[in-house]
# Entry
Amino acid sequence: MTETFITVKRRFFNTDIGLLYDMYAWFLLNEKYQLDINNSAVKDPEVFMVNITHCAAISYARETRKKIWFEREDVVRWLDNIKRGDLKRIQQTIEKSSDAVAKRYGKSKQSGEKKK
# Structure
């Protein structure tokens, strides 16, 4: 499954944020940040984590027809304040999603080359 949730603090209350690490999130990652599955995580893992999580939150909001009320800076704050277990769950979800994308398009994540 490429969907997960985190609880974040808003101004007056906590809210659950859905994160959908689907093809649309990976597309946004490429379009908004000029990053792709083959080279982005290696250069700066923290920036990659923020960017893909921002795209996943947008993807979830789009899928569920919810208003996108957050910016990339909000995602930085969310990730700074979540529990270690939640962060590990997000990392595992990203890995599952990236494996599925790489498999779908026949590319190796490490090399960026097509599989034979």
About this structure: Helices lie at 23-33, 40-43, 45-64, 72-81, 84-104. Residues 84-104 form the longest helix (21 residues). The two ends are 27 Å apart (CA to CA). The beta strands are 3-9, 14-20.
